[in-house]
Here is the input.
Amino acid sequence: MMTRIGSRLFDQAFARSGPIRWLVVGGTLLIAAIAVGATLMAQNFRERALRNSGRELENTVLLLAHHFDQQLQDFAVIQKDFVDHVRTTGITTAEDYRKRLSGQDIHRMLRAKIEALPYIGGVNVIDVDGNVINSSTAWPAPKVNVADRAYFRTFKYDPYSPDILIEPLHSRISGAWTILIVRRIVGPNGEFMGVVGRGIEPANFEKFFASVLLGEGATISMLHRDGTLLARYPHSGEMMGRNFKTGPFEQQRVFGLDHFAGHLTSPVDGEDRLISARALPHFPILMMATTTRAAALTDWREQIGILISVAGASALAIAGVLIAIVRKLLEQHRASRELLTLEKQRLDRAVNNMTQGLLLFDAERRLVVCNQRYIEMYGLSADVVKPGSSFHDIIAHRRATGSFTGDVDDYVARVLRDIHVRNSMVVDTADGRSIHILNEPLADGGWVATHEDITERRRIEERITHLAHYDALTDLPNRTMFHEHLRSELAAVAGGEQLAVHYIDIDEFKGVNDALGHLVGDDLLKSIAQSLRRCIGPADFVARLGGDEFAIVQSAVTSPDQVNELVARVFEAIRMPFDCMGHHLTTDASIGIALAPEHGTALDQILKNADMAMYAAKSAGRRTYRFFEPEMDAKVHERRQLEIDLRHAIAHGGLEVYYQPCLGLKDERITGCEALVRWCHPERGMVSPAEFIPIAEDTGLINEIGEWVLATACRDAASWPDGIRLAVNVSPVQFKSGTLALKIMSALAASNLPASRLELEITEAVLIRDDDAALAILHQLRAIGVRIALDDFGTGYSSLSYLHRFPFDKIKIDRCFVNDIAGPDGSASIVQAVVNLAAARRMTTTAEGVETEEQQRLLRALGCSEMQGYLFSAAKPADKVLELFALHRSRLAEREGSDSRRREAG
Here is the structure.
């Protein structure tokens, strides 16, 4: 199944060109390489297995040859000793040999020698007639005659035969095959006297062979050099004594060499065998070990099985992976083709739905692609503008249809001349449209052209440009265009002429917005802008700077009268009633004027001076105008320097806290002290709070000053008598931080001053700015026991709703009401109303600025609770206040004692 699938996939893969085909070829070559590699590896393993088996056979025969050569040498030594014994005993005749060697003493001697070498076996002594006359194994010797044996006849009748013979034969004693090793014994004159020999049964050799057996199918044999089989394992009785030297040449070669290793067909079982043979160094015996080729390759076959399994599995795995990859690639190829088709469709849709017209030309100036937008943009025919059309033909068709009005040849030549570089142009059509054409060159010599209708964009850009320089509400030039115009006018001021910059601020415009709404306010600004536009001359320039601020640049000024006349026209125009959405409104303005080059030639300088002049007009009561004066700049610098000095004083401890006491009007006891900040300037001396407190509030420094005053005053008040409270002023700016309550609690905790002894004085401005937030903070403070006093009540935008929404503890009556309280048309009635209102709300009242006894008397008569002013004491430093407390207590004590004495006397 997998083969059919792979074949089908490979056929599909070869039907494609490119990487898939090479992948299939590579995978096939890899599988072939695995097969070849496995075959070579199997052959190598086979040769190695045969070499290892042959080496094992060689080691075996080497061991056997050494072993049996040593044993036979040991027996040869016994034979030689026996021959030496015969000679030393003086045996010279066969008869003497028979008599002297047949005794029991010889039997014991032979037996003693054999016992020293137990592996040699029995030794037999044979006389000249072939009779066994003595034996190491039995006494008396067995009656056996060997005169008919071949070895005996060889020794007896062939004087040139070897002295030692080895021959296999059937034993006449045991009846079994025996390997006989015999030695000839001769007399002094060389005459034959007998034989001494040993018979070894093959079973003794075969038992040893079995102990070193090489495995199934292996044989170990002992052969005579003449080819006679002496012993073999496994035992084969019918082959004992058989001569194997009569076979093929390879078989005969084995017996002619001292060492042989190779393979041949066995004459015993006919199998192909590995053979190793080695001759004993001192005896005509050959040790031979063989094993079948099949047995030698047993382990190899197991390895080959594993190798074939691994190689087959690898080939199958590679084939499987290859099939999976090919299938995946084919699927990806199909998906890519489908995606390519889809993308082509999308591209066609995108090209035909572009907002720009698109043309693609080749190097021959022939059309390749044209979208529908281009045809619709110029109202062309798709039968004319189609792939293959020349660029010249398309432009000619546009001229014929009316979307092109120039010379066709000239236009085509101009475009083709610059087509090798990116270029763009904007052309206007006969119907008033603006078309942006962008030509983008291609590497092959062609180009892409896009045609975009930018008519609406141009209108928008013109509108944006207008908005960037003109105010959207009044359509007057804005601040940016005003600066540009003024800069150019300053550079063009001629000698003898001046340039006047008028800064115009509409008075009380915020009230219109707050009372009537922003729509009415915007309509008023537009009406004012139109009026200002009518006021100026042809060389003048009017702009809206923002909000309710306008500016006029008056050029070619030769006399102050020209400036005054323009100012008069402006006031007249602004002061005329305006009908704004059904409301008849009148307004006014504050105008500041700076002249160039008299008041400066740099843009920033002239603008700053005009702005300072405008603020001077506001300070003068509004509804007027002011020319810039150098003193104005000096005041600004002075204020700036005062701000710098104030920052330095805050940072280096230049401020102090003074305390002005409050006196109860009923019992004339000190009820509390108001903490007031004082600043002793190192050069200017004492600076009035009226000067530096507004600066601190404008710059935000009031937060730092207020926090320091609060902490210092609480620390000082902690050492005052328990009945004296501390009053601290809190600026509206401090309420904006949102952490005022936390800072007050922190100051109380740090000084151990009870909250009930602290009184915070606030003005109505705190409530006007954000009354809900301010009331929430006041309630937090009231909850911890701090008293709240309303300062300067009646001098600002006083609202009785404040007294209703928050229960103040005290109302402070401003000094302006105290100053004229004694006059015939004075403010006694106002003070009386405030006192009655406070009493109704369970509040106390404190009159500020009391400087005469008459004022004190009237305030006491009107029911005011406390007084504060120079009549009793000015503000004093902390140490002087403590002295004042002690002095006042002593005076009260003296007065109370005098009153007591007077009552007693009465």
